[in-house]
Amino acid sequence: MGVLDGFLLSLVFPWNLFFVLGLMLLLAVVFLKARALTLSGAVAAVITGGLTLWCTGFGGLFMLFFFLVSAGVLGLLTKRHRSEGIEKKTGARDASQVFANGFPCLLGAVGWFFTARPLFLLIFTAALAEANADTWAGEIGRLSSKKPVSLKTRRPVEAGISGGVTALGLFGGLLGAVSVAALMCLLFPGERVLTMAALATLCGMLGCVFDSFLGAYAQAQYWDAEHGRLTEIETDSEGRPLELSQGIRWIDNDTVNLMSNLFSCVLATGLSLASGL
């Protein structure tokens, strides 16, 4: 990435800005064509990706790109295992989904840009590790031969219901966190990079588990009497509002993702200060 970063640094303003925006627009079009993003999601990705590239260089952009691509590939591979009518959002990611996962890592990216402190690189990595862990846990967990178990009731629930976990899904989440931390080691080598990778993995995985707890206890879930099941969708097939069965009405999956991602950032900050990074 050094050659690419050197090229970007060699450009003077406003040509460096034009280059960043042009590259982000090109990538957004690719993701739009691949149906990985909606139009609003593409706009959000241009903003998120552009700021990431500007603040962290191509290393940070590649980590973000890895998250988006791996999420899309896993989604395609597990599409036939997805339960219809349970999850509120499936398929292409919209702006709220992009910002829910992208805003917390931007906090680290901006801090890294102004200070170059390892603390902010850890925050950036931990946020991405949590987002990737949560995505991989959900997608890989669909392949489990056993039904998810609710963290709230300790009983089996339908696949796709927030707050349900499987052993395979947790293992997938761990792989997701480790993969982002490993990328950070390769793209941002340094004296204490292995310590930072271990902390990012821990924060990412704990954030993923926290996401499941929020999904079980706080996320809004509605009772679909027509199909006799819980769902994250507020209305039935005819557009009539469903009865809130549990959780808080304004807390949906995007809110849970944002809260768990911020949790990982806060945890990373505490662990970083405690370890003297």
Write the SSE topology:
Blueprint: H1 2-10, H2 15-33, H3 39-56, H4 58-77, H5 95-115, H6 118-141, E1 149-150, E2 164-165, H7 167-187, H8 193-217, E3 221-224, E4 229-231, E5 243-246, H9 253-275
Antiparallel strand pairs: 1-2, 3-4, 3-5
Tell me about this structure.
The protein has one domain. With 277 residues, it is mainly α. It contains nine helices and five strands; from the N terminus they run H-H-H-H-H-H-E-E-H-H-E-E-E-H. Helices cover 65% and strands 5% of the residues. The longest helix has 25 residues, at 193-217.
Summarize it.
By secondary structure, this protein is mainly alpha-helical. The chain is built from nine helices and five strands. Helix 3 (39-56) runs parallel beside helix 5 and helix 4 runs antiparallel to helix 7 (167-187).
SS content category: mainly alpha
Q: What radius of gyration results from the CA coordinates? A: 19 Å
Which segments are poorly predicted (pLDDT under 50) over 5 or more consecutive residues?
none
- Rounded mean pLDDT is 88
Helix content: 55-70%
**Largest sheet features:** 3 strands, antiparallel
- What is the count of DSSP helices, taking H or I runs of 4+ residues? 9
| Strand runs, count | 5
Beta fraction: 5-15%
Index terms:
single chain, 277 residues, mainly alpha, 3-stranded antiparallel sheet, two-stranded antiparallel ribbon, 9 helices, 5 strands, 65% helix, globular
